[in-house]
Every structure is written in structure tokens, then in C-alpha cells.
Amino acid sequence: MKLYMSKVNRTKNRYDIVKRMILFLFGMLFLCGCNTIETKEDIPLKIWFDQPTSKWNEGLPIGNGSLGAMIYGAPAQEVICLNEETIWSGEKKYHDKKNGYKALDEIRQLLFDGQYVKAERVVAEKLLSTRLPSGTNAYQMLANLLIENAGMDSLRITGVN
Q: How many CB atoms lie within 10 A of CB 115?
């Protein structure tokens, strides 16, 4: 793996990214705490979990396409796995197909028409680049944010919301 930034710039970039992620998470926590308007059918728009998870692929993903996090759901000692789109292994060379965006309308129409196999073929031909060897150009985790809530160890939590 080649290094393209000096150590000082990389450290500063990571510090800025962590700062943005923390601000984003606090913003998301604030928005989640605000009252929402109930739907006409009074169906609550909530996700309930019976217990926290320790596995990454069972967590609750949140994000905006650039910043992301995986929430594990342990109230006493929450671990939030942070990710940011610019942190990945590999080189600066991009392998994307240059005119792939031009096929999006055709792909959407095929999907709306229920022609899924043909849409998949068009995606493979016109949008996806050739697959690189495993482990290259993979997103890397930014950090684990640990939030400890003192006094919650003794609470018995029956449902995580």
C-alpha cells in the first residue's frame, strides 16, 4: 500500500473526520430525540430490538452516504463503529467506468418493468468496473466510539428502542 499524504496531514485529516463524525452522531441523536408526527394510521415508525448485539452485521446502520456508523445497541456501554468514505485501502487510481452514469435511466426502466435479469446484465456491462483482487480498495473503519453510561449496569432492559 502506498502512502500519498504526509503523516501530519493524515493525522490532521483523521482528526477532522473524527470531529465531523462525532458532530454528525450528536446531531442524529438530537434528531432522533425530537417528537415526530404520527402517520394517519397511527402506526409508530419505530425499530425495536430485543437485545443488543456484539456482531457488526447485526447492528443498526446510520449515515448519509458520506459518513456512517453501526450502532450495536448496548445502553450501558455503547460501541459505535464509525466510517467515512475517504478512508480506504488502495491507490489513487479509480477503476470506475467513465460513462456508467449514462446507463442509469435504462437500468431504472428495466427494473420498473420487472426485467431484473436484463437489468443486472446491463449493470455488469455498463456500470460496474472489473473486480479488483480481494482486499484491495476496501473501506477501512475510522474508529470505535465508546459511550459509557454510569449506573445503567444494574438496570434490567427488556427492549432496546
A: 13
Task: Say if pTM beats, i.e. exceeds, 0.85.
Answer: no
- Quick one: 145 exposed, middle or buried, by C-beta within 10 A (0-12, 13-18, 19+)? middle
Q: Look-up: residue for cell 445503567?
A: 152
Instruction: Name every residue whose Cβ is closer than 8 Å to that of residue 107 and which is 6 or more positions away in sequence.
Output: 119, 122, 123, 126, 127
Query: Residue 123 contacts by C-beta under 8 Å, 6 or more apart in sequence?
Result: 103, 107
Q: How far apart are CA 157 and CA 73, in angstroms?
A: 11
97 burial level (CB within 10 Å; 0-12, 13-18, 19+): middle
Strand 67-71 to 143-148 pairing: unpaired
Maximum separation of any 2 CA atoms in the chain, in Å = 57
Residue 110 binned pLDDT confidence (cut-offs 50, 70, 90): very high
